[in-house]
Amino acid sequence: MKVTVDDDRCRGHGVCCTLCPEVFDLSDDGYAVVETPDVPAEFEGAVRSAADLCPERAITVS
Predict the structure, then answer these.
(1) Do the beta carbons of residue 26 and residue 18 sit within 8 Å?
(2) 17 and 24 in contact (C-beta within 8 Å)?
(3) Which of 13, 15, 16, 43 could form a disulfide with 24 if both were Cys (CB 3.0 to 4.6 A apart)?
(4) 23 with 61: CB under 8 angstroms?
């Protein structure tokens, strides 16, 4: 599984970081960044939840 964050859509709510800090982090500007684009199997559920719960729909899972 791969994950990306659309920089134009992200508004820095941090939901993804709360749900899966192993994959997501906040930049110095306060926006989400993907630290682990190739998601390990044990974090796939948390990443899907982060994508589903992102208020801006900025997270894409493929």
Answers:
(1) no
(2) yes
(3) 16
(4) no
Residue carrying structure tokens 């208020």 = 55
Does the pTM exceed 0.90?
Answer: yes
Strand blocks (E) in 1-62: 3-5, 24-26, 32-34, 59-61
User: How do the pLDDT tens digits run along the chain, 62 residues long?
Assistant: 999 999 999 999 999 999 999 999 999 999 999 999 999 999 999 999 999 999 999 999 99
Token pair listed for 10: 């992200």
For residue 58, which amino acid is it?
Answer: A
Phi, psi at 37, each rounded to 5°: -65, -30
CA–CA separation, 12 vs 43, rounded Å?
21
